[in-house]
Amino acid sequence: MWHYHQLYRLSDWLHNQRSFNPPEGEGSWEQVFEGIYQLQHRNRKKRNELAELIRRFRDGAEAVPDAVVVLQNDLSIVWCNQLALKVLGLQWPVDHGQRLDNLIRDPKFAKYMRRKEFSDALELESGHSVEQVLEFRVMPYANTQLLVVVRDVTRLKQLEQMRKDFVANVSHELRTPLTVVTGYLEMLDSDSLPPPAMWNKAQTTMLEQCKRMDSLVNQLLSLSRIEGAKRHSNDKAVNVPQLLKLIETEAQSINQDKGHQLFFNIDASLDITGAEDELRSAFSNLVFNAIHYTKPGGKIEVCWQRNNEQACFSVTDNGDGIAPEHINRLTERFYRVDKARSRTTGGSGLGLAITKHVLTRHGSQLKINSELGKGSCFSFAFSSDRLISISPLVTSNTASHKSVI
């Protein structure tokens, strides 16, 4: 009976756990109670350590900028972080125990997982967006499991494509004038010299092509310099009205063959701080683009005004307009809506890229609104911290400069 009573006390303590400490034992049962207590203490300590390790792993997995999924060898999901829910469209805990290749319905992914050769990463277009590219890397984990790390490499792919396009476009832009110059030089190298009239034409053409190459190289150097410049470095006061007056004079010269109506509405009291050469490039690129790409006899309005404590610049035309699918790519290097038309106007496709980087360095961004058949408006604004003097607009000629060409 005494032993039965001790067994009852032990059973009651183990099952009910009213206290972590064991009941007081007598005789040999004291050692039994103490031994079980020490065993439980060690097990509880190990469980706490294991729980802490699991917590740290999950905290670390949540902190990484990639989607993380833990799988069994049969590809069933054990655990995933929050980013995996967003990137892969998983649902937790609904998808716990589901096979990942049943949830990502892509033949390439299924073949990759079945092959079990994970030395190379797998790249797939996201099922949620055709423009998003995901990179899958699979690694053995905890002997019987797999760790899947999914990274969004869309931006890297875009940069890689931009690099390829850049090399191809620069090569093409330089090859065309070089071909012309080489052709004429080979003609001059022949035994019979060309007649004076042909030589004069060749000389003029070669000079034009050399100027074209020089302009392209200068624009590339300018773009590289602007990209590498720090914001606010070498900024100084810029007399924007005077700058726009010079651009207006150049616009008159360019416009002689176009016959556009040019309207310049300039607040003569509105100056800002910035890099004058860069700002001149940004302003002139937009004005001259409007002149070049608007059909003859069009209407172009250039505005430099104060609006809600900001200095706002805009160029509006009534040209053909730009299709929506082109607008987001207009500031890419060498991107052209109409390549044949750009060849005619002499455009290199770098003007808006330069403008974009100039504005970024000055804390602004280019906005493009366009409607096919009605025209376009290119605009940007500088914040109040760049304004030197802001005075209320008045209608007198001393405060505002308006001209019609």
UniProtKB/TrEMBL annotation:
One of its GO terms (biological process) is phosphate ion transport. Its EC number is 2.7.13.3. It is an enzyme of class 2 (transferase). InterPro entries: BphY/WalK/GraS-like, HATPase_C_sf, HATPase_dom, His_kinase_dom, HisK_dim/P_dom, HisK_dim/P_sf, PAS, PAS-like_dom_sf. It is found in: Cell membrane. Residues 169-386 form the Histidine kinase domain. SUPFAM superfamilies: ATPase domain of HSP90 chaperone/DNA topoisomerase II/histidine kinase, Homodimeric domain of signal transducing histidine kinase, PYP-like sensor domain (PAS domain). GO terms for molecular function: ATP binding; phosphoprotein phosphatase activity; phosphorelay sensor kinase activity. The keyword Amino-acid biosynthesis does not apply. This is Phosphate regulon sensor protein PhoR. The lineage of its organism: Bacteria, Pseudomonadati, Pseudomonadota, Gammaproteobacteria, Alteromonadales. The gene is phoR.
